[in-house]
Design goal:
36% of the residues lie in helices and 18% in strands. With 130 residues, the chain is of the alpha+beta class. Strands 1, 2, 3, 4 and 5 form a 5-stranded antiparallel β-sheet that branches.
Length: 130
């Protein structure tokens, strides 16, 4: 069983409790270790991400929403302690996220399943939270 690092736990501060529950549950059943690289994001960082082409909008759910919580997280997968960006590992992590979300009754979306802008490491609460 995998455990979130203190760095990942710190990244979950301010994230909606329902999404935190999904993250922690997914880590328990995921075949691969993963960490949280980002929860809340600054305006400056979002502008930087748009310039780099890794994001397309200033309407990110990484900002605090009307309910006072961040509604998105980004993950990184580790294989043998090393970061990987290989999509085959992210697919299994996505599966773990959705399995737990369904069990908990939490609507989520995965950037790894988007058609226009695929963002494999990204997870966010579904439209019912907005």
């Amino acid at each position: 069983m995998w455990v979130l690092s203190s760095k990942s736990e710190k990244q979950l501060e301010g994230v909606h409790p329902d999404l935190v529950s999904v993250v922690k549950g997914a880590l328990e059943i995921s075949p691969y270790d993963f960490g949280i690289t980002e929860g809340e994001r600054s305006v400056e960082k979002q502008k930087e991400n748009i310039k780099k082409g890794v994001s397309t909008t200033m309407k990110t759910l990484h900002f605090k929403q009307e309910d006072g919580f961040v509604h998105a997280v980004d993950v990184v997968v580790y294989i043998n302690g090393k970061v990987t960006w290989d999509v085959k590992y992210y697919r299994k992590v996505i599966q773990a996220f959705f399995t737990v979300a369904i069990e908990l009754g939490v609507q989520i979306e995965s950037g790894g399943l988007w058609e226009s802008f695929v963002d494999g490491p990204h997870f966010q609460l579904g439209k019912s939270y907005r």
